[in-house]
């Protein structure tokens, strides 16, 4: 087995059988760390109970992972310049494995948060470099296949995370949601060290942009904390959220000004001067954020308003991942023959059609309709990321790929965080508006209301019981209308994103 000394050979595309295990190892590493974003979600109550903290405190196991991840993602380009892409990737996987073991062994909640934060920090370069390394090791004519594989692991893992986490927590023990990373990570390291241990990109020691690093940590860290804690603290009615938002805004403005004027910026914001990178990154951030908003909101609605269990809500939305697994590799094989903007257009139209369909849902919607709607959403997703990444990143010089991938993935992650944080708040506030409107339309002298009360009383309910039943029905209708409103907003935003996609120029790969 080779070791990581000073790189002797450049990082060049692989060919033939040598490509298969390397591509599989990189993709599995990305799947492993992406799975960890959601695998702990359903285990939060169990973890909190076992470690003696409240369920609300237990959610810090999610925040402590997401905040450091948001900081290290855009740092990846600078780190890769200093240490090399392959070396940094393997170091990150090693740290991720070690922190996973320590998370499972954590004797108390405070230590769990510490190890979980370090695990999140280690996973940032894995996400960004998995994309950049796949582009680097695949020949140019086959890079679309590489990106299709990467995309599949990116959007399937969050769907499978809660299912795997729930099963492990119920049938084994919650520490195993962390221990399962050990054999997977070890296999990834073994393959990559053997295949790429003597290869890496040239490194250079640039001065450390300490000011940029501090501003980056403040900006991304405060934003992630605002998004993670906002819903629980009722957003800007909380002094904590207001303070975090102010820190975030000031830090972001200062970060942009500093990085654009510093000779050796820690985040390469000049990438946005490339029209394709700018358009592709904006489209990926908005489009994927809306997709994740629906991914969070539909199962929430099914469980809280439609009486579904977590298992059945997962089954109803499982086609999201199934469609992607089947379609994404096929898209990767044929994409080089067509303008990638047409694939992204098909994806956005598919998402818009699925959202318009969801606007027509009512409280009697069947699980079959929900599953078919999820299948359409998943099929559209398979057409989205690969073409846009190919359009916005693959045309850049190879030495800029880690920075571009890290920055784009950081913004995509922010987009999903914004959507998954704001979607439930929007859902509840629109439900309150509709509930007020529905209640105002009910009057004791209204014939329909009187008939409704009479039927419930004939069914054996007293007046209080009948009124409680009507209140539950009105609440269900209000939340149904709120979901319809969310879907209508998605249709409009998908249309705006479609315009952004066509601002990019098509560069044919030779």
Give the key terms.
single chain; 510 residues; mainly alpha; Growth Hormone, Chain: A; 3 domains; 20 helices; 76% helix; globular
Number of helices: 20
Mean pLDDT across the residues is 82
Taking the alpha carbons of the first and last residues, their distance comes to 35 Å
Helix content: over 70%
Using the coordinates shown, work out and report the CATH topology of the largest domain: Growth Hormone, Chain: A
Poorly predicted regions: none
Described by strand count, sense and barrel closure, the largest sheet is: none
Shape: globular
What is the number of domains? 3
Q: Tell me the number of strands.
A: 0
Which strand-content bin applies to the residues? under 5%
Order of helices and strands: HHHHHHHHHHHHHHHHHHHH
Assigned CATH architecture of the largest domain: Up-down Bundle
Q: Just give the CATH class of the largest domain.
A: Mainly Alpha
Alpha-carbon Rg, integer = 24 Å
CATH homologous superfamily of the largest domain, by name?
Answer: MFS general substrate transporter like domains
């Amino acid at each position: 087995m080779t070791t990581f000394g000073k790189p002797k050979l450049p990082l060049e595309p692989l060919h033939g059988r040598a490509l298969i295990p390397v591509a599989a190892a990189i993709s599995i590493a990305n799947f492993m760390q992406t799975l960890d974003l959601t695998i702990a979600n359903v285990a939060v109550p169990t973890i909190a109970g076992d470690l003696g903290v409240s369920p609300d405190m237990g959610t810090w196991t999610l925040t402590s992972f997401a905040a450091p991840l948001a900081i290290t993602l855009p740092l990846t380009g600078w780190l890769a310049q200093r240490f090399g892409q392959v070396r940094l990737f393997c170091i990150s996987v090693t740290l991720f494995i070690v922190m996973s073991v320590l998370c499972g062994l954590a004797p108390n909640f405070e230590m769990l948060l510490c190890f979980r934060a370090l695990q999140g920090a280690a996973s940032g370069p894995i996400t960004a470099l998995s994309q950049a390394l796949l582009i680097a090791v695949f020949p140019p004519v086959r890079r679309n296949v590489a990106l299709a594989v990467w995309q599949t692991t990116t959007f399937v893992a969050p769907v499978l995370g809660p299912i795997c986490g729930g099963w492990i927590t119920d049938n084994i023990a919650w520490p195993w949601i962390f221990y399962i990373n050990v054999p997977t990570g070890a296999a990834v390291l073994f393959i990559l060290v053997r295949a790429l241990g003597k290869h890496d990109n040239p490194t250079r020691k640039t001065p450390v942009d300490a000011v940029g690093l501090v501003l980056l940590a403040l900006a991304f860290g405060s934003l992630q904390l605002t998004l993670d804690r906002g819903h629980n603290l009722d957003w800007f009615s909380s002094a904590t959220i207001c303070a975090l938002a102010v820190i975030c805004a000031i830090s972001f403005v200062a970060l942009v000004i500093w990085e654009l004027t510093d000779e050796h910026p820690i985040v390469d914001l000049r990438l946005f001067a490339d029209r394709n990178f700018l358009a592709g990154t904006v489209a990926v951030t908005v489009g994927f954020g809306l997709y994740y908003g629906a991914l969070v909101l539909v199962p929430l609605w099914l469980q809280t308003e439609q009486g579904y269990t977590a298992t059945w809500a997962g089954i109803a939305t499982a086609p999201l991942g199934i469609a992607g697994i089947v379609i994404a590799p096929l898209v990767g094989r044929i994409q080089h023959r067509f303008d990638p903007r047409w694939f992204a257009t098909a994806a956005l139209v598919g998402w818009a059609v699925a959202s318009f369909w969801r606007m027509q849902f009512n409280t009697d919607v069947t699980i079959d309709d929900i599953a078919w709607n999820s299948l359409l959403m998943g099929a559209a997703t398979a057409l989205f990321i690969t073409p846009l990444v190919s359009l916005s990143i693959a045309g850049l010089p190879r030495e800029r790929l880690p920075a571009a991938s890290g920055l784009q993935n950081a913004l995509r992650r922010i987009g999903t965080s914004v959507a998954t944080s704001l979607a439930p708040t929007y859902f509840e506030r629109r439900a309150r508006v509709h509930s007020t409107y529905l209640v105002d339309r009910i009057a004791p002298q209204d014939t329909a209301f009187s008939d409704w009360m009479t039927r419930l009383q004939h069914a054996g309910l007293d007046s209080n019981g009948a009124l409680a039943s009507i209140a539950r029905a009105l609440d269900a209708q209000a939340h149904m209308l709120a979901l319809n409103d969310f879907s209508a907003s998605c249709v409009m935003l998908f249309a705006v994103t479609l315009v952004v996609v066509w601002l990019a120029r098509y560069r044919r790969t030779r």
